[in-house]
From TrEMBL:
Pathway assigned to this chain's UniProt record: Amino-acid degradation; L-proline degradation into L-glutamate; L-glutamate from L-proline: step 1/2
One GO BP annotation of this record: L-proline catabolic process to L-glutamate
The organism of origin for this protein: Mesobacillus foraminis
All copies of domain Proline dehydrogenase, residue ranges: 44-298
Binding-site positions, FAD: M133, Q161, K185, G186, A187, K199, S224, H225
GO molecular function, one term: nucleotide binding
The protein, known as: proline dehydrogenase
Cofactor: FAD
Annotated InterPro entries: FAD-linked_oxidoreductase-like, PRODH_bac_arc, Proline_DH_dom, Proline_oxidase
Superkingdom assignment: Bacteria
Length: 304
């Protein structure tokens, strides 16, 4: 049953008709728990609250289903506006983005031009930009673009997914660039030809790459709500005397807030991934697919 629900929500997340319907009705039925709002102001207000609780943030202006150059330029402009708003408000937040929202599916050149404009503005503010990893179809080109940008910019990082067979080798390759990586398990539905189908294998590989990247001496963002992975990370950094300045824990807005608070109290750096914007449906569907408990939260809202 759980697998059936996961597949259903993952498929819905890619459905353009469902996405349009969601935009029409707005952040209802529980989505507001996981998305900070549809405006930059709402996002900045959320960042201020999280900062006051001792957490840092990465803001993500949600954008999927970009089909035209005009839409890609609008998305890039919103990323730059977000960086401006972070600077103006004086809050502690980075920027996360998806390159498909910047025109990656239209042309690499368009995407690169948008990325450079965003990174130039971030560098002006001494801020940092994280490239979110998307589905397997976009994996290689995302890494290729990241490697190209990394040779020009110090303020850019990328996400690596533990459920892919290729990941261990990717991290070894990225070590040559001293890459700043966010390590995740992976949230897209992928073929067993490219990804571990069993949870245990994903978990084992996740532990392997956390240790691998930490011992490479590069900055590591461990993005997980799994307490087993959090405790594993603590054990590695303790055993190898890795300084707290070399890693952080990352969690999603509205999820496991008790664990976030406990980690802050223990003196760890906790960064909260805060999405906002009108194009929230695909993100929301992936959150429902990941955690069945989120589905029951939404159903309770529907019954109210």
């Amino acid at each position: 049953m759980e697998l059936l629900m996961r597949n259903m929500f993952q498929s819905l997340g890619k459905n353009t008709s469902a996405n349009k319907l969601a935009k029409k009705y707005g952040l209802r039925f529980g989505a507001a728990r996981f998305v900070a709002g549809d405006s930059i102001k709402a996002a900045i207000d959320a960042v201020k609250k999280l900062n006051s609780d001792g957490k840092v943030v990465t803001l993500d202006h949600l954008g999927e289903f970009v089909y035209t150059e005009e839409e890609a330029l609008q998305s890039a402009a919103m990323c730059i506006q977000t960086l401006d708003a972070i600077e103006e408000a004086g809050v502690n937040s980075n920027l996360s983005l998806k390159m498909t929202s910047l025109g990656l599916d239209i042309s690499k050149e368009l995407c690169m031009r948008n990325m450079r404009n965003i990174l130039d503005r971030a560098r002006l503010y001494n801020n940092f930009v994280r490239i979110d990893m998307e589905d397997y179809e976009h994996c290689q080109i995302s890494l290729d673009i990241y490697k190209e940008l990394r040779r020009e910019y110090d303020n850019v990082g990328i996400v690596i997914q533990a459920y892919l067979y290729r990941t261990e080798q990717d991290i070894a390759d990225l070590n040559l660039l001293n890459a700043n990586l966010r390590l995740v398990k992976g949230a897209y539905k992928e073929s067993p030809a490219v990804a571990f189908p069993e949870k245990k294998d994903v978990d084992d590989n996740y532990k392997k790459i956390i240790k691998q990247h930490l011992l490479n001496g590069n900055y590591t963002a461990v993005a997980s709500h799994d307490e087993t992975m959090i405790e594993f990370t603590k054990s590695v950094v303790s055993e190898y005397n890795i300084p707290k300045e070399q890693f952080e824990f990352q969690m999603l807005y509205g999820i496991c807030e008790d664990i976030q608070a406990r980690l802050v109290k223990e003196g760890y750096k906790v960064r909260v991934y805060v999405p906002f914007g009108v194009d929230w449906f695909g993100y929301f569907m992936r959150r429902l697919a990941e955690r069945p408990a989120n589905v029951w939260f939404v159903l309770k809202n529907l019954l109210k």
